[in-house]
Design goal:
- This protein has 423 residues and is α+β, with helices and mostly antiparallel strands.
- It folds into 2 domains: 252 residues, no CATH class; 134 residues, Serine Threonine Protein Phosphatase 5, Tetratricopeptide repeat (Alpha Horseshoe), CATH 1.25.40.
- Helix content is 40%, strand content 14%.
- It starts with 7 loop residues before the first strand and ends with a helix.
Length: 423
């Protein structure tokens, strides 16, 4: 029997407090409409969580917050770290410390822009972040309740009849809803994001049934978000819905928002044995290392220098991530082709990209923790390392481009010569 989704509604959560005797009393409804809580835990967030009711019965909930970014200038990462690790990871991945959308995700030229439909508009104003869509009544899952509830939630943020947004005077209009693919964890009964599962671990599950489940879950998650107008933010694990119906993401067909998964790779059960040079480079810290490591690089077979692990990382990637200039120079001296080797994850990082990301992550962490930026010799070391690797990468790219142009000219000349002979 088909569900009557016309009875579906979203209602604010009740605020439950304790009286002087310790007994619970209901003081009203907590929610976006009235903001009754006089002392919210985080004044830069507005809790807009809603219960999902069907025929008057609570069957689930949508947990979400509005992030008042305009109040977080210069402290975005540190403040987003306070409520949860999920919000912190989200903030650091997509935004800088001022809450501005990172350049590498901005289309169409950003290295991680993906389809390129999101741009600097994601740097402005408040936005909503959905942490969970949970259909608690198991028998109602996969029957369209979640989709219908999410549509109601979007209507709650935008009055569909008048086109006027339903805002409290304390808030700026929300232009985007964002979420992680873990949002549907409860419905799919998974402990992590299905997309993250593939991007972070491309190896197939040992159990064929588990692998089939993993792929089926990913397809269901993508279908859910695509059908609700969400599109993937660059090559990240996050999705966004634009309130503006004319936004480029709203015009992108869902079959064009493809997810190119990395090819399955068998994982190594013993990285130290299977990738000894990778292992040594990855476990050398603080810019200092045993000089014997340079001898290992010099004496290793070329096949080891060029070997990529299960995620596409070469020894040069490892050295770049640690910002070890002597090791980087030694590896490039053995083989230059790895300068343009890309990882197999969604980011497809070159060694130079990885170095820049590690530097940025380090600076973001220090800033979020209230620590001063890297100074002195350590900073000079990182800057010198990045400058050298950037120069050599540009040289290699230029050489590869010239070679491709020469090959194309050769093919055209050959074709023209063949035509003359036939005449």
């Amino acid at each position: 029997m088909a569900l009557d989704l016309s009875t579906l509604e979203l209602v604010p959560l009740s605020v439950i407090r304790c009286d002087s005797n310790g007994d619970e009393v209901e003081e009203g409804e907590k929610g976006y409409d009235d903001l009754e809580d006089p002392e919210p835990e985080f004044d830069f967030l507005c809790d807009v969580t809603r219960q999902i009711k069907l025929s008057g019965e609570v069957v689930g909930r949508i947990e979400a917050v509005i992030v008042k970014r305009e109040e977080m200038e210069g402290e975005f990462h540190g403040l987003m770290d306070e409520p949860s690790q999920e919000l912190c990871d989200f903030a650091v991945t997509l935004f800088d410390h001022n809450g501005r959308f990172r350049d590498e995700f901005i289309g169409p030229r950003g290295r991680k822009a993906g389809t390129g439909v999101f741009g600097r508009e994601l740097s402005e104003g408040s936005f909503a972040y959905i942490t969970e869509i949970n259909i608690t009544k198991r028998e109602l899952r996969s029957q369209g309740v979640g989709k219908a509830a999410l549509n109601l939630f979007k209507a709650f943020l935008l009055d569909a009849e008048s086109g006027d947004r339903v805002w409290n005077q304390e808030l700026n209009p929300v232009e985007f809803l964002l979420c992680w693919t873990v949002t549907l964890t409860s419905e799919l009964e998974r402990s992590d994001s299905p997309l993250h599962s593939f991007l972070s671990d491309p190896a197939p599950a040992p159990d064929p049934v588990r692998e089939a489940t993993r792929r089926r879950n990913l397809e269901r998650v993508l279908s859910f978000f695509h059908d609700n107008g969400f599109r993937r933010v660059g090559t990240s694990e996050y999705f966004a819905f634009a309130v503006d119906p004319n936004h480029p993401s709203r015009r992108l067909a869902k079959d064009k928002d493809t997810i190119k998964l990395p090819p399955p790779m068998e994982p190594s059960s013993n990285p130290e044995r299977d990738f000894p040079l990778h292992f040594k480079l990855a476990n050398t810290f603080d810019g200092s290392f045993d000089p014997a490591l340079l001898l290992d690089i010099a004496n290793s077979p070329l096949s080891v220098i060029r070997t990529a692990d299960g995620q596409g990382f070469t020894p040069l990637h490892m050295a770049a991530a640690q910002r070890f200039l002597p090791a980087i120079q030694a590896l490039v001296g053995r083989s230059r082709k790895e300068l343009l080797a890309t990882t197999l994850d969604g980011s497809k990082n070159l060694p130079l990209d990885l170095l820049k990301e590690e530097r940025r992550s380090s600076e973001d962490f220090r800033r979020a923790m209230g620590m001063p930026g890297l100074q002195g010799e350590a900073r000079k070391r990182d800057e010198a390392c990045e400058a050298w690797l950037e120069r050599e990468t540009a040289v290699e790219m230029g050489g590869r481009k010239r070679k491709a142009e020469e090959e194309e000219e050769g093919r055209e000349s050959g074709a023209a010569g063949g035509s003359k002979r036939r005449v």
